[in-house]
Amino acid sequence: MEFLLxxxxxxxxxxxxEPLRRALARFDRDLEMTLNAGDLVPAGRIxxxxxxxxxxxxxxxxxxxxxxxxxxxxDDLAAVYALLxxxxxxxxxxxxxxxxxxxxxxxxxxAISTEHYTARPASVGLRGWSFAGGQLLEGWNAGAQDLxxxxxxxxxxxxxxxxxxxxxxxxxxxxxxxxxxxLPPAGLPLEAVPFDSRWPGRPPLYADSADAYKTLWAAAVExxxxxxxxxxxxxxxxxxxxxxxxxxxxxxxxxEQVSRVLRAQLDxxxxxxxxxxxxxxxxxxxxxxxxxxxxxxxxxxIRLWPDNGYGKFAAPRQGQADPRTPRLPRPGSAGRxxxxxxxxxxxxxxxxxxxMRPAPMEQAAQExxxxxxxxxxxxxxxxxxxxxxxVYPLDVLAALWRDVDTDVDAHRAxxxxxxxxxxxxxxxxxxxxxxxxxxLKAWSQNTAAFGPWPDQRxxxxxxxxxxxxxxxxxxAGRTRSSVPxxxxxxxxxxxxxxxxxxxxxxxxxLPGFETLQAGCEYAARPTTRLWKDTLLAQTRLxxxxxxxxxxxxxxxPDWTAGEYRxxxxxxxxxxxxxxDARRVLGGCAHGRWANFYRQEETATDLxxxxxxxxxLMALPRAAGDGxxxxxxxxxxxxxxxxxxxLLDEPLWAVLEQAAKQPDRTGGQTS
Length: 670
Prior knowledge:
Elements: E1 3-5, E2 10-13, H1 18-34, E3 45-50, E4 59-65, E5 68-73, H2 76-89, E6 110-112, E7 116-118, E8 126-130, H3 135-138, H4 147-158, E9 163-165, H5 170-177, E10 181-183, H6 210-224, E11 231-233, H7 251-272, E12 278-281, H8 287-291, E13 301-306, E14 336-342, H9 361-373, E15 379-383, H10 391-402, H11 408-419, H12 430-446, H13 461-475, H14 484-490, H15 495-524, H16 529-560, H17 564-587, H18 606-616, H19 618-625, H20 631-637, H21 648-659
Parallel strand pairs: 2-3, 3-5, 8-9, 8-15, 9-10, 11-12, 12-13, 13-14, 14-15
Antiparallel strand pairs: 1-6, 4-5, 4-7
Helix pairs in contact: 1-2, 6-7, 9-10, 10-11, 11-12, 12-15, 13-16, 13-18, 15-16, 16-17, 17-18, 17-19, 17-21, 20-21
């Protein structure tokens, strides 16, 4: 038996809700994108039936006849997933279709031949994204109101997600309207407004004002009780300030005080919503207490264990200290457990705002599988950043939350086969897909390593932010001591030693990225622009950032040796490399992405880095070409040199060209 799906299909539902209304509208749009309007085939009927006896989010599809289908769904999300399942399996709409510019060739109809389908429960209960560091997404106008958030949340739904971490506001309202649970931001327990004018300058102590806190938290629950929330409890943004001498107290005493605060918040939720999901993040204040067994919470509260920002479940770096203390529940721990994992991080240190996760996906899968085995099955929160630069890692992580036994190598091959096509729309040949797969896997094998551990791989922010910090210190004359912005990784060492460390990290990675770029360019030949906009663009950007950093670091010895012209040329090369990286992003800005890559709004601000480096060029020029500022141009151009002094950038172009000319000995001038 086959059910024939056409544009004329009629979908009826036994109940009404906003998520269902949006799901039906989305399904109509999916039909319009993939099928032609026609009346050659009778209009089929799809009936959505509410089946509350099914487990939450589960659905069953039954074909009754060639023109009749029944979908039994446990709830709104089950109906959403059922329609998205049909869109994927029958219409060929992939989860990341919007973000990967999937093209559709319209057909007259689509046939569904599976007579009975029962949805398989996901391995993880609560599955969601945080958009922390997602400045590109937040300010992007995709051509229609809320389309940026709608497409991000739709991708989350298509990947099997069921919650989004968002603060209250239009995006949060949209998430709820689409059927998603919402996780409020950290630092605001129960999303309660912090104390303000009544206690100017500091929050009240909990021991002195327990009733005031109770009133505050009760009001927050009353305000948000009608929303579909995963309630987050924890210490307020003021942290331990509401508990006197917390850090100095013995662990059992700390556990007793913190547990009292957390239970007071939990009591307010349970008094109104006895079955609502509740979580608490095991941050640097709470994780030691939980691991010591002194945090007293009911078993139904989800303990959310964050990674260190780079995909390792270990204590995060604190300045120069990187203890790497494991951060997962103790074996055999009671209670529900979850994890917070970063596919993207924008920390101004070694984050990856514009490029995908720098550490291997195999390492990510191993970490998450280990966490799953230790009980982290109730909730996975993934930091998705701005989504677009991170689509491949997000797809892998979603595959793992659906089925924790997902094979990363097999998934990579399937992902490439699904999204990357020949320009005429046909599938790529196996050899061509192998080339793409080799490049994709090689990305994380070649990223700059800022430490000895597998997770200590740097995103583009290592180069961009470190160069800005070093150039600023040099420009300001603060080179007699270490640069604060480099101490976290290079140590509290003299400026020259910090630059030597940075140069070593980047120079070691540069040859690999030069080879990878050549491989990506070769692999790009038989496929569409998508490859050029994704891995090839990210590879070019990363290589240029490495190159610019090496040039900056090499300019410092020239400066100290009095080789001012050579120093000037190297600084110009560094600025040019980061400017070229900026142009790489410009090459990806087309169609709906025309105003997406606004890197100046992120910590990875390539334009600001170029500006600082070009300002720095004034120092060696003043030292070696002043006060007339015409000597270098006369040396390079001879009688063709203009009488007026060239500006720095035109002069650099002249000197760079001269540096590439062979000298009398057959070499090249420096």
